[in-house]
Amino acid sequence: MKKFVLSGLSLAMLGVAGAAHAQSSVTLYGLIDAGITYTSNQGGSHNIQETSGTVNGSRWGLRGSEDLGGGLKAIFTLENGFSITSGKLGQNSLEFGRQAFVGLSSDQYGAVTLGRQYDSVVDYLAPLSLTGTSSGGTEAAHPFDNDNLDNSFRINNSIKYSSVNYGGFKFGALYGFSNDSGGFSTNRAYSLGTSYNYGPLNLAAGYMELNNAGVSLNSSGAVTNDATFAAGTQRTYGAGLNYALGQATLGFVFTQTHLDNATGIGASASGTSSGLTLIGGSASFTNYEVNARYSFTPALSLSGAYTFTDARIDGVSPKYNQFSLQAAYALSKRTDVYLMGVYQHVSDTGDSGLTADINGLSASSTNSQLAATIGLRHRF
C-alpha cells in the first residue's frame, strides 16, 4: 500500500487542516484479481473466458484519518470496484460502489460512520465463511449469494456503529434510511452483529432486515439496483465458528434468508443473471457450510468448503450441493497465484426453471455446473 502522512503544520500550510498537534494520513490501496475460467455449462455450452474478481473483486480505494486528540479521529474510506478485463466500473457503474463513508472513531467508545457501507452480517459473520474471504470469494458464495456474505449489495444512506474490542468481544449495528419523505419504511435496512475471539476460537452472529428492497417503489433507498431479491421483506440471520488447530482452521457457518412477498431474483452486482420471476409469497434459503483452511508453508495454502442449501422457492423445494476448493501460492507479500474450482448440483427443482448457477457466472442449462479458474492476485 502507498501511504502518505502529513503533519498538522503541513496541512495548515496547505489551508486544509487545523490544530498543530493533529496528524493526518491518507492510504492508497487496492487489489486486482484476474484469471482464465473454464465453465462446463453456461446457457447450454461450455466456455473459456477471461474473468475479473473470481475470488476477490478488483478494487482501489483511499482510506484516511485525522487525529483530533484525546483518542478521537476523523476517518473516511472511498472504495471503487471495477473489472480488470474491461476497465468498466463495478457495482452498476457507481464511482465508489464498494464503500463510501466518513465518520468519527474513538479509542474508548468505538466508531460511528455515515455513507454506503457493509451490513453487520458481512462485517461479523462473513469472515468465518470461505465466501467472505480471500480463501473462497465470489464463486464460493451460497446460491444467488442469498445471505449476502459475498457483498452482492451494500447499504446506502446508512449510519453504522462499530464497538472497540472488549477482551475479544465486539459488536455493531447499522441502519439504512429510505430517504423517502412519504414512506419512511419503504426500502430501508437495519442489521446487528457480534463476534468473540478467545485464543483459537472465533464465534460470530448477525441479523439483517430489508424492507421493500429491489423493487421500484423507492429508487433512492437503502438497497437499490444491486439488490439480490425483489421482496417486500428480506430477513437474513446466521451464526458461525472457526477453530484453529496448528496450521489448520476448521469452520462451520449457518445462515437463513426468508423472503415475504417475493417477486423475483434479479441480476446482482456479482454477475449472477438468473432473472427468475417468483410466485408472489414467501421463499427461503437455509445454508449449512463446513469449511477448512490449511497452510502447508507460509507461501502455500489450501482451502475448501461444502455447502448444503435447502430452499423453498417458486412453489418447489430445491436442494443445492456445492463444493469449492482453492490452492494459492504467494510469490511475494503482495502477489499470489491461485487455482480455484467450484461444483454445484441442484435437485428437486420441478418446473420452476431453476438450474445450477455458480455465483458470478451465467447460469447452466442443466442441474449441474463446474467452474475452474487459474488466476493472479496483486495487492497494493
Automatic annotation (TrEMBL):
GO biological process: monoatomic ion transmembrane transport
SUPFAM superfamilies, sorted: Porins
One term under GO cellular component: pore complex
Subcellular compartments: Cell outer membrane
Domain Porin: start-end pairs: 12-348
Secretion signal span: 1-22
Keyword line: Cell outer membrane, Ion transport, Membrane, Porin, Signal, Transmembrane, Transmembrane beta strand, Transport
UniProt-listed InterPro entries: Gram-neg_bact_OMP, Gram_neg_porin_domain, Porin_dom_sf, Porin_Gram-ve, Porin_Neis
Major site of localization recorded for this protein: membrane
Pfam families: Porin_4 (PF13609)
Key word Cell inner membrane present: no
Molecular function terms from GO: porin activity
Membrane topology: Multi-pass membrane protein
Subunit field text: Homotrimer.
Name of this chain's protein: Porin, GBP family
Organism for this UniProt entry: Paraburkholderia phenazinium
